[in-house]
Amino acid sequence: MAGTVYHYAELTQPQLLALDRSRTLAVMALSPLETHGPHLPLGTDVFVAEALRDRVIRKLQSAMPELDYLVFPSVALGADPIPAPGSVKIDSRAIHLLLVSTAASLAGLGFKWMLVTDNHGGARHQAAIEKAVRKAWKKHRFALICPFLNFYRRMVEHDPALLEATGTAPRSCGDIDDAHAGTNETSLMLAIAPDRVAADWRQVPPATINRDNRLYRVLSLLGSVIGLLGADTLGRDLEYMGSGLSWQNANPMPPYMGAPAEADPDRGRRMLDAHADEAVAQVRRALEGQPPFSTPLLWGLRFAEPS
């Protein structure tokens, strides 16, 4: 029956092999266990990725009723979590190999597509995923569809359509000044699991990046020069990297970034909807045979990721 959700771990081999490969989309939630300030749980990214997975399936059931869904168990893996006690740091090569191997296994069974939902912006995490996307496509013509890679860039670069759709603005849209457990992620958790948010979340003070340092000034200037030479994306990425390093090199480094007290569950729901709409659009393109490639943040520096 079209629109049916199957769970990979619960199927027998004959049940799995009986699925129609031409209309079955595999789905996996993938994100790290990571400290999210004093007010959000360590599994925040996993919980958001799972909520997004379920939201995308519901939207696809309406938009593409012919599809069935093969849901994999969630995977708690992530490279470059914030360096704070409680974060579980995984080598990015493990993420890359997980996705490449899973894609190869599914392709060997005749499946064609897998949607990976995610909520983690670590640079090497995203680079490892995109490298897996490109390898799976090149070797197997298998589409690993990873919408957060493009969606996160839209957040950081203040895409006007995204800001309008979500009712957010710079410093509340999950950009670098709201990058972690701030307004955006607290809004997401209030929308999907308010009982998992600490009762005193409104008392958590804002955390800001101090950009008055040499590292930021050097990288920002270098980014501006590179942008003037025509490499706009790399130039913006360098400025973003300077901001991120300024946050993580602070002493002490705050285990969150942004203003949690300004969170709003309605804004969280709008952000989830916008992210799900991005995913639906990418699934549609993949089903049409288009390569599922993205240009994640810091892609110009992907040599730093060893996969």
Q: Could you tell me the number of beta strands?
A: 6
Q: So how many helices?
A: 10
Question: Which homologous superfamily in CATH is the superfamily of the domain at 5-168 and 272-304?
Answer: Creatininase
Distance between the termini: 39 Å
CATH topology of the domain at 5-168 and 272-304: the name is: Rossmann fold
Q: Percent range for helical residues?
A: 40-55%
Would you give an account of this structure?
By secondary structure, this protein is α/β, with parallel strands linked by helices. The protein has a domain at 5-168 and 272-304: Rossmann fold. It has helices spanning 13-17, 44-63, 92-108, 123-140, 148-156, 160-166, 183-192, 214-228, 232-248, 265-287, and strands at 5-7, 24-31, 68-71, 75-76, 113-117, 143-145. Strands 1, 2, 3, 4, 5 and 6 form a 6-stranded parallel beta sheet that branches. α2 links the parallel β2 and β3. α8 runs antiparallel to α9 (232-248). The chain is globular and about 60 Å long. The mean pLDDT is 95.
